[in-house]
Amino acid sequence: MALKIRLARAGSKKRPYYHVVVADVRSPRDGRFIEQLGSWNPMLPKDGERVKLNEERIKHWLANGALPTDRVLRFLDEAGISKRDARSNPKKAEPGKKAQERVAAAKQAEEEAAAKKADAEAAAAEAAAAPAEEAPSEEAAS
C-alpha cells in the first residue's frame, strides 16, 4: 500500500483549514485517512503558529515509506524534519507564446520607425547640403 503525507481540506467556504494526514494514495483528498499528523491554518499571520506538526509520528511514517507531498515537504523542511531540494524552473517566469509574439511585433515596429526616422534625417541632411552648394554658383552666375 502506497502512503502519502498530504493535506486534507477542512474549514468553511473561503476560510481554509488543512489537516496534515497520512493516507493511501488512492483515497480522496478529504476522504479516508489513516492518521492525522498535524494542521495548517493559512488564515493566520506568517509569524504566528500556522503549522502544527506531530514530529514523532511524522518520523515514524517517513520511516515506514510514506512520501510527503511538495507542500507538506516545505513544512517538514521548515521544521527540520526532512530536507527539500530547491527547485528551479526559469521557463516558468517567461511570458506566454502570444505575449512573446506581441513583444516581437512591437520591437519590429520600433525598429522600422527608427529606420524611417534615420532615412528622413539623412534626406534632410542631403537637402540642406545640396542648396548650400548651389547657392554660390547662382550668385556667381548673376
Written overview of the protein:
The chain is an alpha+beta fold and about 140 residues long. It folds into 2 domains: about 5-85, 2-Layer Sandwich (S16 Ribosomal Protein, Chain: A), CATH 3.30.1320.10; about 100-135. The protein contains 3 helices and 5 strands; from the N terminus they run E-E-E-E-H-E-H-H. The protein has helices spanning about 55-65, 70-80, 95-140, and strands at about 5-10, 15-25, 35-40, 50-55, 65-70. A 5-stranded mixed sheet has the order 4-3-2-1-5. Strand 1 (about 5-10) and strand 2 (about 15-25) form a beta hairpin. The longest helix has about 45 residues, at about 95-140. The model has no long low-confidence stretch (mean pLDDT about 85).
> How many alpha or pi helices?
3
CATH superfamily of the largest domain: Ribosomal protein S16
Task: Tell me how many strands there are.
Answer: 5
Q: What integer value in Å does the Rg equal?
A: 34 Å
CATH class assignment of the largest domain: Alpha Beta
Largest sheet: 5 strands, mixed
CATH second-level architecture of the largest domain: 2-Layer Sandwich
Overall tally of domains: 2
Order of the strands making up the biggest sheet: 4-3-2-1-5
Helical proportion, percent range? 40-55%
CATH fold category name of the largest domain = S16 Ribosomal Protein, Chain: A
The SSE string, one letter per element, is EEEEHEHH
